[in-house]
């Protein structure tokens, strides 16, 4: 089993997730202005990503430049994409992730604390919600228990 196998809210019961409820914003931060680089990148790539209209195009042309901006603003932050995030195979918490940000300047290994970014699947938020929640749960486990993730 892997993150992508979590396809319904019922499959989350094995993780102890049986109810979803709204929570207030977890992060309180002032807005920041995008850099000139990010403005130019989005100006160039939004039309391309829209025309191609695939999850991969949106990931590469829209999401990656925005997340990379975080690492420029905060150099201790590292950005990872498309790597294994095998947290607990017994619970099905294995597989690849879209993006992970870590509060660690080591660009070679994923170390806690981590924040996962999971993209909506085919523009359908509800369809990808179980996979997103399973990945977020894995990040919670890492942040609670693991100072460093094995890759």
Detailed description of the structure:
There is one protein chain. The chain is built from three helices and three strands. The protein is mainly alpha-helical and 151 residues long. It has a three-stranded antiparallel β-sheet.
Write the layout of secondary structure elements.
Layout: H1 36-52, H2 55-73, E1 78-81, E2 99-102, E3 114-117, H3 125-145
Antiparallel strand pairs: 1-2, 2-3
Helix pairs in contact: 1-2
Q: How many β-strand stretches?
A: 3
Give the number of domains.
Answer: 1
Average residue-wise pLDDT: 89
Query: Please, how many helices?
Result: 3
The main β sheet shows up as: 3 strands, antiparallel
Cα radius of gyration in angstroms: 16 Å
Global shape: globular
Strand pairing plus helix content: what structural class?
A: mainly alpha
Poorly predicted regions are none
Distance between termini? 17 Å
- H-E order: HHEEEH
The proportion of residues forming helix, as a percent range, comes to 25-40%
Assembly context of the chains: single chain
What is the spatial order of strands in the main beta sheet? 1-2-3
Give the strand content. Answer: 5-15%
């Amino acid at each position: 089993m892997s993150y992508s196998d979590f396809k319904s809210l019922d499959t989350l019961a094995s993780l102890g997730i049986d109810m979803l409820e709204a929570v207030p914003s977890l992060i309180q931060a002032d807005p920041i202005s995008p850099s000139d680089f990010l403005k130019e990148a989005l100006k160039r790539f939004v039309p391309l990503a829209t025309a191609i209209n695939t999850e991969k195009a949106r990931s590469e042309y829209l999401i990656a430049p925005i997340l990379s901006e975080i690492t420029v603003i905060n150099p201790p932050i590292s950005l990872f994409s498309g790597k294994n995030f095998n947290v607990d195979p017994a619970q099905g918490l294995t597989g690849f992730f879209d993006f992970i940000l870590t509060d660690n300047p080591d660009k070679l290994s994923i170390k806690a604390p981590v924040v996962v970014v999971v993209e909506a699947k085919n523009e359908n938020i509800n369809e990808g919600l179980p996979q997103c929640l399973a990945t977020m749960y894995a990040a919670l486990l890492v942040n609670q228990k693991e100072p460093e993730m094995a890759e």
